[in-house]
Amino acid sequence: MQIVYSRVSTAAQSLLRQRHILTEAGLLVRTEGVAEGFRPADGVLLFEDPATTSKIPALDRPAFGKIAAKAHPGDTLTVSELFRLCRDLLDIHAVRNWCQARGVALRVLSGPLSNFHDLAAGDATTAVIINVITAVGQFQRDIQNELTVEGIAAAEAEGRYRGRPPALDGDRREDVRAAFHEGASIAALARAHGVSRAAVRTALADLLPGQGVLPRPSA
User: Fold this and answer.
1) I want to staple 80 with a disulfide (CB 3.0 to 4.6 A). Which of 18, 36, 93, 153 is the partner?
2) Where does the Resolvase/invertase-type recombinase catalytic domain lie (predicted)?
3) Beta strands in the chain (DSSP E)
4) DSSP symbols for 18-49
């Protein structure tokens, strides 16, 4: 059995890119009106974690619990890109151990590890290459984060950094808030204003459950 896993971090992101990669590999099939135009191919089980941050270890995510209930020895767990499944080296080792304990192969379709037939294989060569490639990738991310922080600090010191401007401000923000009071959904407001749902939530932050409700904006 082929088991496919997909994930995005926020509701504003789309699974479409991953679905295209999986379709090219023959694991999904284009079908109008089903799962946004895609369905699992015969013999494939599809599990998705939409709006799930990578900070949650792979084995603790909701979809992975469902995978654990369906996986059997001889199955293959496939992801379009490794970072959709694992955040760092510790997470990769945890997933590899999980796969090895259940006799499940692990496959990635794109990226530097895509040439491996089974990333869960227990041989020394596979383990070393995974460690090196993952460590290098993690090092690059750490350097990028460090440079970003340094750049922001330098810009703030010179009075040039003001942060990212909100996607909805001024009259547009008030229009969104008024429409929300009238019963419009976040998804509908995002479509109407051509912004992400996250941008709408930012504009409505103090009106959402748990944040208290301010007086209704004037018309």
Assistant:
1) 18
2) 1-159
3) 2-7, 28-30, 38-40, 44-49, 76-79, 105-108
4) HHHHHHHTTSEEE-TTSGGGEEEPTTEEEEEE
| Cα–Cα distance measured from residue 65 to residue 51, given in angstroms and rounded to the nearest whole number | 16
Contacts of 177 (CB under 8 A, 6+ apart): 203, 204, 207, 217
Contact 5, 67 (CB under 8 A): yes
Tokens representing residue 68 in the block: 């654990």
Spatial CB neighbours of 200, under 8 Å, sequence gap ≥ 6: 168, 176, 186, 189, 190, 193
> Count of alpha carbons within 13 Å of 155, Cβ hemisphere only?
11
Number of Cβ within 10 Å of residue 174's Cβ equals 15
Mean pLDDT of each 10-residue bin along the chain, 219 residues long: 90 82 93 72 93 87 93 96 85 93 95 87 88 73 68 69 69 78 80 85 75 44
Which distant-in-sequence residues (6+ apart) come within 8 Å of 71 by Cβ?
A: 1, 3, 77, 102, 104
End-to-end alpha-carbon separation of the chain, Å? 57
pLDDT value at position 212?
Answer: 43
Rg, the chain, Cα only: 22
**Res 211: pLDDT:** 45
